[in-house]
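PROTEIN DESIGN WORKSHEET
SECTION A - STRUCTURE
LENGTH: 250
TOKENS:
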């Protein structure tokens, strides 16, 4: 890393250290409501008998998993009297950049902020955080970063390419672990062929009204929203879509 880049990162760190608040998206998760293709199931070690999946601090998880996260590179800096684990800085390619541009993101309190303690399939930088994709037994988990903790969306897989959300849970940033709700896969798959409740979808996602033509079944809705999610990088918007799909398939 060149001197100029190191200086910029140092200034950024010192600026973050002096700030006491950080903007967080407003998440309306009381309204009940996919991401990249993944393969090769992994199982997670239990941290205690109380939880199916334990937690580990973000910094340590990233150090252990970076080699399995395509397009994500750890950027390290050293500042006197500052715990190096307190800040996680990583570099990632700017989506849809025609010039191969990269950007950086910085997460503070990485030494105390807890994430799920199991291997990740992917980590995607968002405009206001990140999402980590995991596989647990026959399920997939999308774990969204927010300032106060994780929002974890549980999914089953359809045809090896599309994830169907069926439940979610919140985990505080110092949380010790989670349990995984069971999925009624037979019922979820049966719902795919049912006629879509277009009015209910529009109540939860008003923008859908402009695109409703040609949407007939719940599977049509799922495919449309899956493509929509692949085009965006906003945590609030991604969770809004997950909430819509959960309202259909839970």
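SECTION B - SEQUENCE
RESIDUE ASSIGNMENT:
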């Amino acid at each position: 890393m060149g001197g100029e880049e190191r200086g910029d990162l140092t200034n950024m760190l010192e600026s973050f250290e002096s700030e006491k608040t950080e903007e967080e998206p407003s998440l309306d998760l009381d309204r009940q409501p996919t991401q990249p293709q993944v393969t090769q199931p992994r199982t997670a070690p239990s941290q205690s008998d109380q939880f199916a999946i334990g937690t580990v601090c973000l910094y340590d998880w990233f150090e252990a998993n970076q080699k399995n996260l395509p397009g994500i590179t750890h950027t390290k800096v050293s500042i006197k009297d500052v715990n190096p684990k307190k800040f996680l800085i990583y570099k990632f390619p700017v989506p849809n950049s025609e010039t191969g541009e990269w950007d950086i993101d910085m997460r503070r309190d990485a030494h105390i902020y807890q994430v799920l303690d199991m291997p990740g399939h992917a980590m995607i930088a968002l405009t206001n955080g990140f999402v980590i994709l995991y596989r647990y037994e026959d399920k997939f988990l999308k774990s969204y970063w927010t300032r106060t903790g994780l929002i974890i969306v549980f999914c089953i897989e359809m045809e090896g390419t599309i994830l169907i959300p069926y439940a979610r849970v919140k985990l505080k940033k110092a949380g010790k672990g989670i349990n995984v709700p069971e999925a009624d896969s037979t019922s979820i798959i049966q719902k795919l062929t049912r006629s879509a409740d277009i009015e209910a979808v529009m109540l939860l996602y008003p923008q859908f009204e402009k695109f409703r033509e040609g949407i007939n079944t719940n599977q049509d809705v799922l495919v449309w929203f899956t493509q929509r999610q692949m085009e965006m990088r906003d945590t609030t918007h991604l969770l809004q879509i997950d909430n819509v799909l959960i309202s259909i398939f839970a």
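SECTION C - NOTES
The first helix runs from residue 3 to 18.
The chain has a mean pLDDT of 84.
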